[in-house]
Structures are given as structure tokens and as C-alpha cells.
């Protein structure tokens, strides 16, 4: 996938700063508090990626303006836009993986583990549609995001794949590693489709999310949905 536009870095010949893009005055961080600015830059980039209509056109100037600093200030923490965006992606993947692990922490059996992880995934995706789009929307140019950044998302998928292999029974039991991986990918495809369609078409008369999650897991485990519903952790209010 090629970027929709070229990204002109601050200081590059031909770069112009419009009055709207000029940074607002900002009080300098006290010595030793450089990490405060780094955190602010990361938060600003994450916010913009999740809210811009065309996140693939994000620029360092936009991030700097959001924080209220000169674009050159970013280079003390990130060498370029790619490094900043990849840092945001890894943080979001880690957040999602942590939520899924925490949800399954007290699961008494593999089916409960699977139900908890999948419920956490769907609920996070529906509750954080902008951040979900950042991770799984496929809008970032390939030359801006390396494979290693998205590779950080392999951990949640591997955990779900292992849970699915342990929870499947009867004729659906998966014997080879290749079968297990393919089954995990198919389940993730279903979960991703559920989150994406729910976020994009929320005005449809959707059944309760927990019912949809249970029905989807029933298809992939050959276990009754009625057995899965009680295993879903209570949704946070």
C-alpha cells in the first residue's frame, strides 16, 4: 500500500508552515522532565490517529501543534514520524494484550479462557473505535509502518489460538499446529468483522454483543452458545 501523499519533514526544502500550523507558545519542561514531553507527543499522535478522517496523512507538524511545541522538538525523542507512529502502535497492542490476559486470569478452563479473551477484544474494539481503527484499519502506508510494529499484535492472536485449540472438542479438535493457526486466524477474522461492522453500522438493530460473541465462539468450538454465555466476564459499566 503506497502513501496517499508525501510527508514533508520540518526543515526540508520547500516545507512551509501555515499560520494554522504554527505551534502555540508552550512553557519549557523543567530539566529532567523530557519524558513528560515524550508522553505528550505519544498521546497527541494516538489521539490524531484515532480521530483524523485520513490518519494516513498525519504529519509531525500536526502532532507538534497538538502539543504546542515546535516541530523540531520532536526529534529529541523520535527520529521521524515513522518511529513515533510505530511507538503508538506498540503501546496500543500492549494495552489490548494486557486487557485480554487480565480478563482470562481467573478462567477455570480453556473454554472460559477463550470466552474471556474474545470478549475483552470485542469490548475494547467497540469501546475504543478510533484506536481499534489505528491497529486494524489498514490505513497506514507500508513505508511508514514496518512489519515489526504490527508484529506486536501477534501475542493476543497466539493466545486466542492456543485457547481455541484447547477448547475445541470432538470432530473439531485440531491436531496439527497448522490447523490450529488457521483456526485461530478464522476466529480472529470473525471477531474483527464483528467489531468493524458494529463500529461502522451501529445504527442497525444489533443483538447484544455478548450473544454475538457466544454464537461466534459456538461456531468455532462446536460448543453450545448457552454454555459459553455464562463464561463471559461481566461487562464494565
UniProtKB/TrEMBL annotation:
<dbReference type="InterPro" id="IPR050109">
    <property type="entry name" value="HTH-type_TetR-like_transc_reg"/>
</dbReference>
<dbReference type="Pfam" id="PF00440">
    <property type="entry name" value="TetR_N"/>
</dbReference>
<keyword id="KW-0805">Transcription regulation</keyword>
<dbReference type="GO" id="GO:0003700">
    <property type="term" value="F:DNA-binding transcription factor activity"/>
</dbReference>
<keyword id="KW-0804">Transcription</keyword>
<feature type="DNA-binding region" description="H-T-H motif">
    <location>
        <begin position="59"/>
        <end position="78"/>
    </location>
</feature>
<dbReference type="InterPro" id="IPR001647">
    <property type="entry name" value="HTH_TetR"/>
</dbReference>
<dbReference type="InterPro" id="IPR009057">
    <property type="entry name" value="Homeodomain-like_sf"/>
</dbReference>
<dbReference type="InterPro" id="IPR036271">
    <property type="entry name" value="Tet_transcr_reg_TetR-rel_C_sf"/>
</dbReference>
<feature type="domain" description="HTH tetR-type">
    <location>
        <begin position="35"/>
        <end position="96"/>
    </location>
</feature>
<dbReference type="GO" id="GO:0000976">
    <property type="term" value="F:transcription cis-regulatory region binding"/>
</dbReference>
<dbReference type="InterPro" id="IPR025996">
    <property type="entry name" value="MT1864/Rv1816-like_C"/>
</dbReference>
<dbReference type="Pfam" id="PF13305">
    <property type="entry name" value="TetR_C_33"/>
</dbReference>
<protein>
    <submittedName>
        <fullName>TetR family transcriptional regulator</fullName>
    </submittedName>
</protein>
<keyword id="KW-0238">DNA-binding</keyword>
<feature type="region of interest" description="Disordered">
    <location>
        <begin position="8"/>
        <end position="35"/>
    </location>
</feature>
Amino acid at each position: 500500500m503506497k502513501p496517499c501523499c508525501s510527508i514533508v519533514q520540518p526543515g526540508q526544502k520547500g516545507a512551509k508552515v501555515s499560520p494554522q500550523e504554527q505551534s502555540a507558545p508552550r512553557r519549557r519542561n523543567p530539566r529532567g522532565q523530557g519524558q513528560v514531553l515524550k508522553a505528550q507527543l505519544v498521546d497527541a499522535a494516538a489521539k490524531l490517529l484515532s480521530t483524523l478522517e485520513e490518519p494516513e496523512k498525519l504529519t509531525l507538524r500536526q502532532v507538534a501543534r497538538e502539543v504546542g511545541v515546535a516541530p523540531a522538538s520532536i526529534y529529541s525523542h523520535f527520529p521521524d514520524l515513522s518511529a513515533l507512529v510505530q511507538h503508538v502502535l506498540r503501546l496500543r497492542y500492549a494495552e489490548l494484550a494486557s486487557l485480554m490476559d487480565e480478563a482470562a486470569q481467573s478462567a477455570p478452563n480453556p473454554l472460559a479462557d477463550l470466552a474471556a479473551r474474545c470478549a475483552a477484544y470485542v469490548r475494547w474494539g467497540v469501546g475504543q473505535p478510533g484506536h481499534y481503527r489505528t491497529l486494524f484499519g489498514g490505513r497506514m502506508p507500508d513505508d511508514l509502518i514496518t512489519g515489526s510494529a504490527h508484529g506486536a499484535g501477534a501475542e493476543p492472536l497466539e493466545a486466542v489460538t492456543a485457547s481455541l485449540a484447547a477448547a475445541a472438542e470432538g470432530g473439531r479438535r485440531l491436531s496439527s499446529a497448522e490447523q490450529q493457526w488457521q483456526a485461530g486466524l478464522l476466529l480472529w477474522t470473525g471477531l474483527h468483522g464483528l467489531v468493524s461492522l458494529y463500529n461502522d453500522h451501529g445504527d442497525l438493530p444489533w443483538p447484544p454483543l455478548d450473544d454475538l460473541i457466544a454464537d461466534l465462539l459456538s461456531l468455532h468450538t462446536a460448543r453450545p452458545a448457552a454454555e459459553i454465555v455464562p463464561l463471559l466476564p461481566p461487562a464494565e459499566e
